[in-house]
């Protein structure tokens, strides 16, 4: 009798184990949205213990390569895939904007306590290497009354293929013809000057430990590391500090194309922050593994509803409502989609009543 009870107990335990067996989804890519993605994936797993999303923040170039090679289930990028990149993929890749964020000029200038201001041409000159010292007249013009040191400016930039680099260089290409002709906009560029750091953590660490340095980074990295970051002059001539509201205004007038590939740097809008961007999850239209397909689609449906409510807690702006609705239509049209309807909230936990 005792043996029978033990056998039944083992079988029951095995049945429970099967019931909560995880669907393991592997993803990689952009470091720009890493803080919100890690929060989303953790919260989603707590509510849906049968789904585990493992994310490697190896840069937007890594996200594009992973989804192209098929080594991950989905990728992430702060730059939409180019026509050439899409053509290199077997099958169709869909872009899903996730949140809006800001890239800020962060700096470490000993003795300067005021929040600095930067016009587009000044930033371009610094990263081109034509503005070499902190007491340059261009910086003085942007910052009247600030006493700058006579020290050399030490530029720090990303060495990996980075969507953050694309956002920053895309902006510089719009405000500086010289930058556009000499360097251009891409995930990786030939930097005219400066030190290189790997990923957002690398450049943040370099700036933190290097006096007289300047770089560019996602807003939350500057806030979390308590590094000064500047306001940037927008198209309307206003110096604007990055915030949820100013980033949201940058996207307010966007005309979202059907493939969701769009740039919003240097937008119109009196209070629009000029170095803002959507960031994207890159999903194969047809995922062979049915369980993974259903789980990814369900996560995306959650991301477009419940997930958006979390974004402001990490200084990301939620998607505009028309963009969410447009994405929900794309999600519903996917083959094999098991995502909840657009009006639904969080999918039920496995075993829930």
Summarize the structure.
The protein is α/β, with parallel strands linked by helices and 353 residues long. It has 14 helices and 12 strands.
In CATH terms, what is the architecture of the largest domain? 3-Layer(aba) Sandwich
Report the oligomer: single chain
Number of domains: 2
* Content-based structural category: alpha/beta
Order of secondary-structure elements? HEHEHEHEEHHEHHEHEHEEEHEHHH
CATH superfamily of the largest domain: Periplasmic binding protein-like II
Q: How would you describe this structure in keywords?
A:
alpha/beta, D-Maltodextrin-Binding Protein, domain 2, three-stranded mixed β-sheet, 353 residues, disordered N terminus, 12 strands, disordered C terminus
Can you characterise this structure?
Strands 1, 2, 3, 4, 6, 7, 8, 9 and 12 form a 9-stranded mixed sheet that branches. The protein has a 3-stranded mixed sheet with strand order 5-10-11. It is built from 14 helices and 12 strands. The chain has helices at residues 2-19, 34-47, 60-69, 83-87, 120-128, 137-142, 163-175, 177-182, 199-209, 219-224, 244-251, 290-303, 306-310, 321-332; strands at 23-29, 51-56, 74-77, 93-108, 117-118, 154-158, 195-197, 213-218, 228-229, 231-233, 239-240, 276-284. Mean pLDDT is 90; it is low at 1-19 and 336-353. The longest helix is centred in the first third of the chain and has 18 residues, at 2-19. The chain folds into 2 domains: 22-100 and 276-332, D-Maltodextrin-Binding Protein, domain 2, CATH 3.40.190; 102-251, D-Maltodextrin-Binding Protein, domain 2. By secondary structure, the protein is of the alpha/beta class. Strand 10 and strand 11 (239-240) form a beta hairpin.
């Amino acid at each position: 009798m005792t043996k029978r009870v033990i056998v039944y107990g083992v079988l029951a335990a095995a049945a429970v184990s099967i019931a909560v067996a995880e669907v393991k989804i592997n993803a990689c890519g952009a470091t720009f949205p890493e803080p919100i993605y890690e929060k989303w994936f953790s919260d989603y797993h707590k509510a849906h213990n049968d789904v585990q999303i493992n994310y490697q923040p190896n840069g937007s170039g890594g996200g594009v390569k992973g989804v192209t090679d098929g080594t991950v289930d989905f990728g992430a990028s702060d730059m939409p895939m180019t026509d050439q990149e899409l053509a290199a993929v077997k099958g169709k890749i869909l872009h899903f904007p996730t949140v809006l964020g800001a890239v800020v000029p962060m700096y470490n200038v000993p003795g300067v306590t005021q929040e600095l201001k930067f016009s587009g041409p000044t930033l371009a000159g610094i990263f081109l290497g034509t503005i070499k010292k902190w007491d340059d007249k261009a910086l003085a013009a942007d910052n009247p009354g600030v006493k700058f040191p006579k020290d050399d400016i030490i530029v720090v930039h990303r060495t990996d293929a980075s969507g953050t680099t694309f956002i920053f260089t895309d902006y510089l290409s719009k405000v500086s013809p010289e930058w556009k002709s000499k360097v251009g906009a891409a995930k990786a560029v030939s930097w005219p000057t400066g030190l290189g750091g790997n990923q957002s953590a690398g450049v943040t660490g370099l700036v933190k430990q290097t006096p007289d340095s300047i770089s560019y980074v996602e807003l939350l990295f500057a806030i979390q590391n308590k590094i000064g970051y500047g306001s940037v002059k927008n198209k309307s001539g206003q110096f604007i500090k990055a915030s949820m509201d100013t980033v949201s205004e940058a996207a307010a007038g966007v005309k979202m194309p059907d493939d969701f590939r769009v740039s919003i740097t240097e937008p119109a809008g009196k209070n629009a922050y000029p170095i803002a961007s959507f960031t994207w999850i890159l999903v194969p239209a047809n995922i062979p593994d049915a369980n993974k397909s259903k789980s990814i689609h369900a996560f995306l449906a959650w991301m477009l509803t419940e997930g958006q409510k979390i974004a402001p807690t990490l200084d990301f702006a939620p998607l505009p409502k028309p963009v969410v609705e447009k994405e929900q239509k794309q999600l519903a049209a996917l083959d094999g989609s098991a995502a909840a309807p657009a009006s639904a909230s969080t999918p039920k936990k496995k075993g829930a009543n």
